[in-house]
Amino acid sequence: MTNVFGEVAMKKIKNEAELLKKALIIGEKYAINRGYESFKPTNSAKDKIESLYRLLVNDKLIHPLPVENENQLNMRHKLALWIAKQLPEGHALLK
Q1: Cα-atom radius of gyration of the chain, to the nearest Å?
Q2: How far apart are CA 87 and CA 64, in angstroms?
Q3: How far apart are CA 48 and CA 21, in angstroms?
Q4: Domain for residue 53, yes or no?
Q5: Residue 74 covered by a domain
Q6: What CATH number does residue 37 fall under?
Q7: Which domain holds residue 54?
């Protein structure tokens, strides 16, 4: 499905904002375990999202977006989907 700009529109998932917050927390822990420094308090959410997205793509934990669809909205969505798949069945964010 494409939107009026010809971009692929991703289906909104329930609790996406909360899932993204969880993904940023877990993703930062993953990055630290991989040897990266933790985020600084001055890092913007945009920078964190893009950094974690690129790390997970690099480590083949998520499939990359087509280059023309690499934007903050789609990266946020991919991170939310990633963490949703990591959570145990019945988790409060999945209801």
Answers
A1: 14
A2: 21
A3: 11
A4: yes
A5: yes
A6: 1.20.120.1930
A7: 16-94
d(CA 40, CA 37): 9
CA angle 14, 43, 56 (to 5 degrees): 55
According to DSSP, residue 8 is labeled B
What does the block give as tokens for 57?
Answer: 């793509």
How does pLDDT run across 45-71, given as a tens digit for each residue? Answer: 999 999 999 999 999 999 999 999 999
Digit-coded pLDDT (tens) for 4-43:
444 455 677 888 999 999 999 999 999 999 999 899 999 9
Distance CA 19, CA 86 (A): 11
Buried b (16+ CB within 10 A) or exposed e, 42-58: eeeeeebbbbbbebbbe
User: How many domains are contained in the chain?
Assistant: 1
